């Protein structure tokens, strides 16, 4: 049983078929890249997996159980957390509070517990928040307002917030967008080290080099269809992929 | 030392003023009028803090808060006059009735977003106000309800103005403490995440719809409590006190005080209740003056007196919710 199984997933927007019968999987501990030209349906596929967009057809199973049709927070609670393509940190909250939302989302704190609760739960939430903050190296700016962080640090903040949920599968939507080369290289190392700790990761990326450099398997989408699903070297040599990216040689 | 000053001294001073200085002044110089003003400040502080939870923290623009205040006041007054049920029954009944109504109303409206939610709450506020005004058989319509029985605790009538003041101040302080715990906790952080980006909060595992319904209901409960306190202290409720104007007044309080800030809501309430009283000297111009103060404060302090950030760090330190520099330090985050 794979951690995540995507079976014949399809999404139509009116006449447009954004994702067309895609079947793939993520094994536990794997680092899978999802690439494709603009408009290939990468982000739509992520939204279908994480419950933000309902499926038109097909099935998604997580840890063997079907998750299509579940609300995003229910899917998140099962151990899948995601980041967004356009940075979506909570700007008017501190860095610590941002990350704590991930922890409280996963662990829960009822209104009653917030008022009368013992300290144990709150301490556990804050410990988990610190752990995630330290993991991404933002412990020193915990008290700063998220809006005041640099663009690069906000990327890590978003990842920390997802890590605070202690997910089994982390879905990263274009984490390197807007970063320069050295920042991208740092991020690549970081993603790899997360994977090295046993976290399964699925990564959408525009940046071919990043994906080819760190992923163990690469899925290529073009016009909503899967055109390749193999190791980086094989994908790089695949004529269908070259055609999708570079066009046909006349 | 400064940790101590901000951490324990400020709240202590506030409690000292509310429970010692003000009552002392009232007992010494107070006529009935001053007692009324002091109680009005307390009641509106509770209203503003309960709205803070929905609008300031969770970011839902609520334009009908006064209606739940009114429901609480009417339930307390009608239970007293029609069923001879006293304070100890009327007070919780008022809160629960307002909360129950809010819960029913919240089920459909919480699926609306931003401005549509605001319009829905505006409509609900107007509907409840219209019912209070026109359901003459029950609410006595525009004449309002006179509640002569006053407050009786365990068979003992609470008659002296100073005792009533202490009772109101105690209940308001207790209610605000509960709202403070909700607002300044990880639960409160989840609420703030709704304000910032509720779709993103959803992806973090936060059940956004449920949380919104919960917070709307809790807020209405305390608005109902405030309404009951108003009914018992003034002895008279009429629909005019619970209209759109009151909703906007409470909203203005939390905006002037600083959206998202609980201490700000209290300061805003005190300011907008006391200012018109202080300005009585200038006669008819006083409402214009109040308007100018609000206008200027929005113009120069768009984040209010205590914006979210400064307010948050104030509360964090102010209530012993310390930050630790290192993860090894266990004294971090909310308690």
UniProtKB/TrEMBL annotation, chain A:
Which stretch is the leader sequence?
Answer: none
- Give yes or no: UniProt keyword ATP-binding: yes
**Which named protein is this?**
ABC transporter
| A GO molecular function held by the record | ATP binding
Annotated ABC transporter domain residues: 4-248
UniProt-listed Pfam families: ABC_tran, BCA_ABC_TP_C
For this protein, the record's CDD domains field holds: ABC_Mj1267_LivG_branched (cd03219)
What is a single cellular component term in the Gene Ontology annotation? plasma membrane
Q: What is the lineage of its organism?
A: Bacteria, Pseudomonadati, Pseudomonadota, Alphaproteobacteria, Hyphomicrobiales
InterPro entries associated with the record: AAA+_ATPase, ABC_AA/LPS_Transport, ABC_transporter-like_ATP-bd, BCA_ABC_TP_C, P-loop_NTPase
Which keywords does this chain's UniProt record carry?
ATP-binding, Nucleotide-binding, Transport
Q: Which species is the source of this protein?
A: Prosthecodimorpha hirschii
TrEMBL record, chain B:
**What's the protein's topology in the membrane?**
Multi-pass membrane protein
TM regions (residue ranges): 9-27, 33-53, 60-80, 86-107, 114-137, 162-179, 213-233, 248-275, 287-306
**What does the UniProt keyword field contain?**
Cell membrane, Membrane, Transmembrane, Transmembrane helix
- Where found? Cell membrane
GO molecular function ontology, one term from the record: branched-chain amino acid transmembrane transporter activity
* CDD domains associated with the record: TM_PBP1_LivM_like
Q: Which Pfam families match?
A: BPD_transp_2 (PF02653)
Annotated coiled-coil positions are none
Q: Name one GO cellular component term.
A: plasma membrane
Q: Could you name the domain of life of the organism this protein comes from?
A: Bacteria
The record, for PANTHER family, names: HIGH-AFFINITY BRANCHED-CHAIN AMINO ACID TRANSPORT PROTEIN BRAE, HIGH-AFFINITY BRANCHED-CHAIN AMINO ACID TRANSPORT SYSTEM PERMEASE
- Report what the protein is called: Branched-chain amino acid ABC transporter permease
Q: State the species of origin.
A: Prosthecodimorpha hirschii
């Amino acid at each position: 049983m794979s951690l995540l199984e995507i079976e014949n997933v399809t999404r139509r927007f009116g006449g447009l078929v954004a994702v067309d019968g895609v079947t793939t999987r993520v094994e536990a501990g794997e680092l899978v890249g999802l690439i494709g030209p603009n408009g290939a349906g990468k982000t739509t596929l992520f939204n279908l997996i994480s419950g933000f967009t309902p499926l038109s057809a097909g099935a998604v199973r997580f840890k063997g159980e079907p998750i299509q049709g579940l609300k995003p927070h229910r899917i998140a609670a099962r151990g899948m957390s995601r980041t967004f393509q356009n940075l979506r940190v909570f700007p008017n909250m501190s860095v610590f509070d941002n990350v704590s939302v991930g922890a409280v989302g996963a662990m829960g704190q009822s209104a009653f517990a917030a008022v009368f609760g013992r300290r144990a739960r709150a301490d556990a939430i804050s410990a988990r928040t610190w752990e995630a903050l330290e993991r991404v190296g933002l412990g020193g700016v915990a008290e700063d307002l998220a809006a005041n962080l640099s663009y690069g640090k906000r990327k890590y903040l978003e990842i920390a917030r997802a890590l605070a949920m202690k997910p089994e599968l982390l879905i990263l939507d274009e984490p390197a967008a807007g970063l320069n080369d050295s920042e991208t290289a740092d991020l690549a190392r970081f993603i790899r080290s997360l994977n090295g700790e046993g976290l399964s990761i699925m990564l959408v990326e525009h940046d071919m080099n990043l994906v080819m450099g760190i992923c163990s398997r690469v899925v290529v989408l073009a016009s909503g269809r899967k055109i390749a699903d193999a190791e980086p070297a094989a994908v790089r040599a695949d004529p269908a992929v070259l055609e999708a990216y570079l066009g046909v040689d006349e | 030392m400064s940790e101590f000053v901000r951490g324990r001294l400020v709240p202590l001073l506030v409690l000292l003023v509310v429970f010692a200085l003000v009552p002392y002044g009232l007992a010494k110089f107070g006529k009935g009028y001053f007692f009324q003003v002091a109680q009005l400040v307390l009641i509106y502080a509770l209203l503003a803090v309960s709205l803070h939870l929905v609008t300031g923290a969770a970011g839902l623009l609520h334009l009908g808060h006064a209606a739940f205040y009114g429901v609480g006041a009417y339930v307390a007054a009608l239970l007293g006059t029609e069923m001879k049920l006293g304070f100890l029954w009327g007070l919780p009944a008022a809160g629960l009735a307002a909360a129950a109504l809010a819960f029913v109303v919240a089920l459909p409206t919480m699926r609306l977003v931003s401005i549509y939610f605001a319009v829905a709450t505006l409509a609900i506020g107007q509907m409840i106000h219209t019912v209070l005004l026109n359901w003459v058989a029950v609410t006595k319509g525009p004449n309002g309800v006179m509640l002569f029985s006053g407050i009786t605790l365990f068979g003992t009538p609470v008659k002296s103005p100073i005792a009533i003041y202490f009772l109101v101040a105690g209940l308001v302080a207790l209610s605000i403490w509960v709202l403070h715990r909700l607002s300044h906790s990880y639960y409160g952080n989840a609420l703030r995440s709704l304000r910032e980006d509720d779709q993103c909060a959803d992806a973090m595992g936060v059940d956004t719809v449920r949380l919104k319904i919960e917070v709307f209901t809790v807020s209405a409960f305390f608005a109902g409590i405030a309404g009951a306190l108003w009914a018992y202290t003034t002895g008279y409720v009429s629909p005019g006190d619970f209209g759109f104007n009151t909703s906007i007044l409470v909203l203005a309080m939390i905006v002037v005080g600083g959206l998202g800030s609980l201490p700000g809501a209290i300061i805003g309430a005190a300011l907008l209740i006391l200012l018109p009283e202080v300005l009585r000297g200038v006669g008819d111009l006083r409402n214009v003056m109040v308007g100018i103060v609000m206008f200027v404060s929005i113009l120069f302090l768009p984040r209010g007196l205590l914006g979210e950030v400064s307010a948050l760090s104030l509360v964090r330190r102010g209530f012993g919710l310390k930050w630790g520099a290192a993860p090894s330090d266990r004294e971090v985050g909310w308690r």
